Amino acid sequence: xxxxxxxxxxxxxxxxxxxxxxxxxxxxxxxxxxxxxxxxxxxxxxxxxxxxxxxxxxxxxxxxxxxxxxxxxxxxxxxxxxxxxxxxxxxxxxxxxxxxxxxxxxxxxxxxxxxxxxxxxxxxxxxxxxxxxxxxxxxxxxxxxxxxxxxxxxxxxxxxxxxxxxxxxxxxxxxxxxxxxxxxxxxxxxxxxxxxxxxxxxxxxxxxxxxxxxxxxxxxxxxxxxxxxxxxxxxxxxxxxxxxxxxxxxxxxxxxxxxxxxxxxxxxxxxxxxxxxxxxxxxxxxxxxxxxxxxxxxxxxxxxxxxxxxxxxxxxxxxxxxxxxxxxxxxxxxxxxxxxxxxxx
Length: 345
Fold this sequence. Notes:
Blueprint: H1 4-8, H2 11-25, E1 40-48, H3 57-79, H4 84-96, E2 117-123, E3 129-135, H5 141-151, E4 156-158, H6 159-168, H7 182-194, E5 208-213, E6 219-225, E7 246-248, E8 253-259, H8 261-266, H9 269-279, H10 284-298, E9 303-309, E10 314-315, E11 322-329, E12 335-339
Parallel strand pairs: 3-4
Antiparallel strand pairs: 1-5, 1-11, 2-3, 2-6, 5-6, 7-8, 8-9, 9-10, 11-12
Helix pairs in contact: 3-4, 4-5, 9-10
């Protein structure tokens, strides 16, 4: 005869089996880790003072439409088997060609009444990177940054040297007159006449950027900008600086930043996010929030960032009233937002 003690010894095992069964039936999993989405793309068009009351319905619709077009251009690359690098470039080129954003065609003027572009790109598999700064004739600076990366001899080229290299690499160039936009010029003239060098209108804020995870598990990030309104000649911000405005590493994350570049350079924001994840074992969300909502905010440094980790998790923190942003994951609907109160995925 089997003793009662024999059955009682199985009680813990039976309880565990029942618990697992209940959890599975309720849709929960003992191991909450799930497979990453097939691909993910996140973009931004700059952060700043963006109040609903200060933007017309027409302007808001135009910005949302511009973000959606840029997002879909990059997603089309990813879902058809393209690389994260190519997706980043596709999205950023769309924003560089859109005069609404402070990059490429929509860039702001410096104190000399000139437009000077900066851009950088980095891929997470091998850590290759490329950047250009203070260029005046490159139509899509992000393509020049990629050309520098592909060439491999250097990482960062500026000024006429960057332009000469771009021409030799068959990157499209244009006359500086191509970049003229009336509203940017009007903002420049207003600041020049009033000498209010720290006046940064809403539509002169920003930078554009993208981060992507492709079907092959590789991360990439890119950032492009016209820089700070009425900046000094020769000024470079964080956008072309690898580790400040741009970073990608398959071990951790891809990052593109936007905001007051001097602070992002001093704090090496993009690389710090990576380091917090790798060495302090912080999650993407924790690391991003601490940097943007704590460290930058303590220094009165306005801005934000978009970040994407190797598991497809997204972070889009910003400490201003708005940030032009959008994201999409494989099989999900695109998300587009401007204001702080709009819930992010």
